[in-house]
């Protein structure tokens, strides 16, 4: 009997496939469909503090009373948070699989306030969707690390449910940051988040939005850092995210050392039915490879378990491609 259960960040999942945070998971009934299709867990669409601020600014533009700013901001904030808490509660009523909330903030006090209310609403875990695009020339990687650590410490002091941090691949020393976050309380690390992709329209001479979906080529970085981080930090709980489009991608992430794998763009493209298709193919592959559980092959090809770990390092580029014309 093949067992595809997995332990991720303190949660027991019936399988490693998680529906990633997106507009797809902003509807309780749709979340139930994902559960029926076989998803191991669901990450709800992120609650963005920035979006709350933007909506407040829009309303203020239509106001003739500047002194009403605090009232308008408070109203918008309360309304957005209440809507999100309702999403958690209704999804929990319909689903039996773990429901993971997600927040993105830029003020330290907001992380704490949102986290506390999310736990009270019944979320099984919380994913901190952390991303700061810093352009200040004086802002160092140490400043960024200290900010991440401050966030995880404060959130863990406030709530008792598992907390994962979803980080960017642009944070510098990824293994060092993952290790620091883990020893400071993070129950899991998500590699990686995907944010707005800018593009340039050369005909109209303006900045436009690029492709919002990931593609197969994005998986390479996800595999590289999943393998390196899991190999250098034994016992760390990783969810691979970005570039996962089919069952083979999921298996690759597990071989690299992931405990769970998030899928999003492929579900947008193919619908919820791809979840059951992926799980069926994984079980068939395990049967053919004579694996009875995920633990038998999880991390088998990570940085610590292959003869030549330098295969995951950029220095190999010249060795393998320097002779190509």
TrEMBL record:
InterPro entries: Aldolase_TIM, DHO_dehydrogenase, Dihydroorotate_DH_1_2, Dihydroorotate_DH_cat. It holds the Pfam family DHO_dh. Pathway: Pyrimidine metabolism; UMP biosynthesis via de novo pathway. Coiled coil: none annotated. This is Dihydroorotate dehydrogenase-like protein. Residues 5-286 form the Dihydroorotate dehydrogenase catalytic domain. It comes from the Bacteria. SUPFAM superfamilies: FMN-linked oxidoreductases (SSF51395). Gene3D superfamilies: Aldolase class I (3.20.20.70). Its cofactor is FMN. Keywords: Flavoprotein, FMN, Oxidoreductase, Pyrimidine biosynthesis. It comes from Parabacteroides acidifaciens. GO terms for molecular function: dihydroorotate dehydrogenase activity. GO terms for cellular component: cytoplasm. GO terms for biological process: 'de novo' pyrimidine nucleobase biosynthetic process; 'de novo' UMP biosynthetic process.
């Amino acid at each position: 009997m093949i067992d595809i259960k997995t332990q991720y960040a303190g949660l027991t999942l019936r399988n490693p496939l998680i529906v990633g945070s997106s507009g797809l998971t902003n509807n309780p009934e749709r979340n139930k469909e994902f559960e029926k299709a076989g998803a191991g867990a669901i990450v709800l669409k992120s609650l963005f503090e920035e979006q709350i601020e933007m909506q407040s600014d829009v309303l203020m533009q239509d106001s003739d009373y500047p002194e009403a700013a605090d009232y308008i901001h408070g109203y918008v904030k309360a309304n957005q948070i209440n809507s999100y808490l309702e999403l958690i509660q209704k999804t929990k009523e319909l689903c039996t699989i773990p429901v993971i909330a997600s927040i993105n903030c830029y003020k330290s006090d907001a992380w704490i306030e949102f986290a506390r209310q999310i736990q009270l609403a019944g979320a099984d875990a919380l994913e901190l969707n952390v991303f700061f695009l810093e352009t200040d020339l004086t802002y160092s990687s140490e400043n960024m690390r200290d900010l991440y650590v401050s966030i995880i410490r404060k959130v863990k002091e406030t709530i008792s449910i598992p907390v994962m941090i979803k980080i960017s691949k642009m944070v510098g020393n990824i293994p060092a940051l993952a290790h620091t976050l883990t020893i400071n309380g993070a129950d899991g690390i998500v590699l990686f988040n995907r944010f707005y992709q800018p593009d340039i329209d050369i005909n109209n001479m303006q900045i436009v939005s690029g492709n919002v979906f990931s593609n197969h080529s994005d998986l390479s970085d996800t595999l590289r850092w999943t393998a390196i981080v899991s190999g250098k930090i034994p016992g760390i709980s990783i969810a691979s995210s970005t570039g996962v489009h089919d069952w083979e991608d999921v298996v690759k992430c597990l071989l690299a050392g992931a405990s769970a794998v998030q899928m999003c763009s492929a579900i947008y493209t193919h619908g919820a039915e791809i979840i059951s298709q992926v799980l069926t193919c994984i079980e068939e592959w395990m049967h053919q490879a004579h694996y009875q559980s995920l633990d038998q092959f999880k991390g088998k090809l990570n940085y610590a378990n292959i003869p030549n770990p330098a295969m995951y390092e950029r220095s190999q580029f010249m060795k393998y491609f320097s002779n190509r014309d």
